[in-house]
Amino acid sequence: MPAAFLVTLDGQIHDAARPFFYVDDLTVLRGDGVFETALVRGGRVLKFDRHLARLADSARRLGLPEVQARQWEAAAAVATAAWGADEEGVLRLVLTRGRESVAVEEREPTALLYLSPVPEATLRRREAGVGAITLERGIAADIGARAPWLLLGAKTLSYAMNMAALRHAAERGAQDVIFLDTTGRVLEGPTSTVVVTSGRTLRTPPPDDGILDGTTMRALYRHAAERGYDCRIEPLAGGDLRASDGVWLVSSVALATRVHTLDGEPLRRPEGALDLRPLVDAALA
Ligand SMILES: *Cc1c(COP(=O)(O)O)cnc(C)c1O
Q1: Mapping DSSP to helix (H, G, I), strand (E, B) and coil, where does residue 158 land?
Q2: What end-to-end distance do the CA atoms of the chain give, in Å?
Q3: Which residue has its alpha carbon closest to ligand 1 atom 13?
Q4: Predicted structure pTM score
Q5: How far is the C-alpha of 82 from the C-alpha of 13, rounded, in Å?
Q6: What's the rounded Cα separation, in Å, for the pair 174 and 176?
Q7: Residue 129 in contact with residue 262, Cβ under 8 Å?
């Protein structure tokens, strides 16, 4: 398995075992930055254009300098060439506000690509699915448009809350979380998009409703719609989860993970219920 490394936008490869950030980088001190997580498979970054578009959008929402797609593409080409085509890898794109001690007008963002192996636990999740719990997110789904400073549509490096929710789940014997809004509507997982299936219908909450616009969900929807599946973007109530044929968490590296148990109760799995895993694999091929 290749060892982890990072690539800077000048195309230089750096050993990931050596320190990299300045202590006064505003992402170190304040979590002030944005990121993307993409899957490398067969020596290429899957749906890289979608990740770059969302990185650019996240950067805009935080008032960071404009993302220069060509620089990131060139650096990603260096990274994937060094990684090879044999193993899957996790590619993180990281963009921070830069150093606090540098005057604002001279401040440069810190930008890097970090490539590392897919964790064993993630590979297991793809196969075995997860138990999940529902947790309150403490916001109303429609707050995103009224309160852009909450950065709900941006993939920011302030993920301590998301990680705390996962620890909260682990204490309850579950491996993942589905956030609900203050009215009981389904939002998303801490690192994934919720998709439920009923027959040949797929449903997911509207991406502008206080959640992140998932690139895996988008790729899946495009592929499935072309094959005659009814792909709907509409509000979901917490109760819709248990009534469906299947609850899935989709994201770039874990791909499609089935939720087999929700809040301690096994979910029903009718005969012939749709398996989203081959659909997501085909959508990404
Ligand atoms: C990254 C992420 C997702 C999944 O997005 P993909 O583009 O499919 O990987 C969903 N929700 C949150 C909060 C995330 O951070």
Answers
A1: coil
A2: 22
A3: 191
A4: 0.97
A5: 9
A6: 6
A7: no
Whole-number Å distance between alpha carbons of 227 and 65: 39
Domains, the chain:
5-118 (3.30.470.10), 123-284 (3.20.10.10)
Residues with CB under 6 A from ligand 1: 37, 155, 188, 191-193, 212, 214-217, 250-252
Each residue's pLDDT expressed in tens, for the chain with a length of 285 residues: 689 999 999 999 999 999 999 999 999 999 999 999 999 999 999 999 999 999 999 999 999 999 999 999 999 999 999 999 999 999 999 999 999 999 999 999 999 999 999 999 999 999 999 999 999 999 999 898 899 999 999 999 999 999 999 999 999 999 999 999 999 999 999 999 999 999 999 999 999 888 999 999 999 999 999 999 999 999 999 999 999 999 999 999 999 999 999 999 999 999 999 999 999 999 999
Name residue 238's amino acid.
Answer: G
Query: Of all atoms in ligand 1, which is nearest to the CA of residue 215?
Result: 7
Helix (H, G, I), strand (E, B) or coil at 37: strand
